[in-house]
Amino acid sequence: MGLRRHMADVLRLERQAGVGWLAAVVPAALIVLPIGLGLMAGQARAGAAIAVGAMLASNVTRYDTARAQMEESALIVLSLLLACLAGVGIAPLGGGAADMALWGIMTLAALCGNFGRMAAIVTGRFIVFAVILTEMARHAHHPRAMVGLVMAGGVAAAILVPVLSRGTSSSAAPPSPRVGLAARVRRWGRSLRRLSGCQFALRIAIVMALTLSMDALWPDRHGLWAGLTAALLCRRQLERVPVRASQRALGAMLGVLLSCLFLFHAPSRGEFILFLSGLGVASMMARARNYMLYSMVATPLIMILVGGGKVVDGAVLIDRLVFTLAGAIVLVSVNGIVAGLIRIYETKRDPVSGIPPHGGAML
Question: Which positions, given as ranges, span the membrane (predicted)?
Fold first, then answer.
């Protein structure tokens, strides 16, 4: 019954989360247009860098007030800028040194996320963005120029997506924090003294250490994809077997099969741009409906963008499928271990209720 219910959750469509055509077409256009123009100008990598920035920032939440919307756009741009700087700074280190630096900065970000709502938003996005942009910076001919291109796409998406998608469903503005700075610092310090309060940082540290070690052991096999999978699936709320992990694994397999179309047919430039356009629109439509469907269409899109706007060959497809599955397995295993430690350790500290306290956990 547990497996049946889990699979039902994996396949469930969110019927109340419909996305209007405008909300899907605008971010898709911001992703596809730079790629198309870059291909026509012989600057595919530059176009891909702009498209990556637009793709990452297009996930901006739409709010019903201008102030909340400006704050949200500023936060996603800040996350993207920090991740760009981190990726460009880490990539030249190369090998194990780069992996160690990426692990350290992601663990620190996870710890800082407990400070408050804004910190949690910025660091949560930063962790995912940093993996993608570090991988891009490794293969960029001019990493510093990549920062400007990625930020151009990101700023454009953060501003234009909410404005041009006006009239679609939006979220209520989050409440303004009423806790002072000193109180937040004390609360943050208390959260770090409880296992339940720092469990997110602990899980990030463990899963990234394990997945980045794969990248260090097999540097030519795209092992960083395991780290990206773990970063995407590791949420602040601890769940032993996340539904999103199963959705990501199944979606990645279907996405690789979708990408295999190019192994049997070399597309023309027009066909390639048309394929990217379809992926862009489909990913925006699927994002709010089902994460498995989103992963299926986003996997080939991300691989093409990170690969510099080129068709991905068969060996890369297999590598990224294997490391996606490895990242999901690592995350589920670590979640189970940490959940068990919390139950054992904090039940001993709170024997009356028998329930692990969660006072320090954010989000």
Answer: 21-40, 46-63, 75-94, 100-133, 145-165, 270-286, 291-309, 321-342
Whether 175 is in a domain gets the answer no
> Which of the residue ranges 100-109, 179-188, 209-218, 337-346 would you say has the lowest mean pLDDT?
179-188
Range of the domain at 60: 18-167+187-349
63: phi then psi, degrees, rounded to nearest 5 = -110, 165
Global pTM?
Answer: 0.86
- Three state DSSP letters for the chain: CHHHHHHHHHHCCCCCCCCCHHHHHHHHHHHHHHHHHHHHHCCHHHHHHHHHHHHHHCCCCCECCHHHHHHHHHHHHHHHHHHHHHHHHHHHHCHHHHHHHHHHHHHHHHHHHHHCHHHHHHHHHHHHHHHHHHHHHHHCCCHHHHHHHHHHHHHHHHHHHHHHCCCCCCECCCCCCCCCHHHHHHHHHHHCCCCCCCHHHHHHHHHHHHHHHHHHHCCCCCCHHHHHHHHHHCCCCCCCCCHHHHHHHHHHHHHHHHHCHHHHCCCCHHHHHHHHHHHHHHHHHHHCCCHHHHHHHHHHHHHHHHCCCCCCCHHHHHHHHHHHHHHHHHHHHHHHHHHHHHHHHHHHHCCCCCCCCCCCCCC
pLDDT confidence of 172, banded at 50, 70, 90?
Answer: low
Number of other CB atoms surrounding residue 97 within 10 Å: 12
- CA 343 from chain centre, in angstroms, equals 29
Report the domain count for the chain: 1
- The verdict on residue 151 lying in a domain is yes
Read off the pLDDT of residues 320-332 as tens digits, 9 standing for 90 and up: 889 989 999 999 9
